[in-house]
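User: For my dataset I need records formatted as: sequence, then structure tokens, nothing else. Please produce one.
Assistant:
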Amino acid sequence: MGSAGRRALLGRLAALGWFARRGEVATTQAMAMLLDIPELHAATLSLVTERTGVDLSTITRFQAEAVHEDAGRPDLEGLDEEGCPLLMVEAKFGAVMTPGQVRAYVQDQDRRVVDRRGVVAVLVPPHRVVEAQLLIAQVRDEWASAGLSHGDTAMVVLDWGTLLDRWEAAVAHLPSGPDSVAADLVQLRELCLTLGGLYMRPFGLAAAGPDWRGRADDLAIIVDQVTRRLLPPDDRTWPVQQEDGYAPFRYLPGGYPMPGSACAVGLSSRFADEGGSTLWLRYHRQTPHFRAISDRLLATDLRPTVRTDQGHLWLPLTVRADLSGELLVDDLVGQVRAVHALLLPPANRR
């Protein structure tokens, strides 16, 4: 942050839509340029080695966005004199992270790095660290379930704040001024703060209880994304609706095997203000087969959490305080589908 709270130029530019769309590419190129500076090069390798125990001291240069044979394109590769990618870095702000990306980089590194250990690092804003760690854990679990190995490659999650702290400490002894490395790092930090802020943060205390009001717009987005995923493909006849104390919400097929039933997923401000969850699954008392649905769900382990206010059936959805983005949507969609599965005859449940 500049003097008197003035934001550095790149931090302000990054908030503009046309810049933000290319923000990750701009940041990757800035990193590659800065990693030519010996102090920043050494600080980066030291941080990764501390986290993984892998010796990366033979890395001599970094290359941005090298294209692999499978068309994969990691943001940065740290190469030794022979061109072996001992370090691959996937840098993210708001873009979706997928297990497939991580798998592809690990497999490519295993193929190209022989008789040495390499590292695949996912670099994210601090509020996406848990998401990235869960992603890597998912990759490890998938390999373990399939009886596969990821060779000698280590996988690690780094956050932008920690990396920039290390970089600033590494150049603290160098001259400062408008054309200094320190000045470049001020610009880069502001760029990262802005781009990171464009991505929805985990809900934390706003996942339940009255703090939800500060994240009402984000919760409305989550309601829309979750319900869109649960609608039949290409079906846009289920609009978002509003009711007093339950807004926004959207109806969707109710999961009961007999046709016609519906349920809704929405934000219950009343229940949240009482200290409960923010998002609730509701079966309206007038939905077809309501009595059968109610009897079946009240006979399950969900009974202690169910509410019957206004004669409807309300089931709380757990908004994970530490998740955001696609992982949070996936988790909530899974919870709704789990309720629907309870409505099926036992022989049809998976």
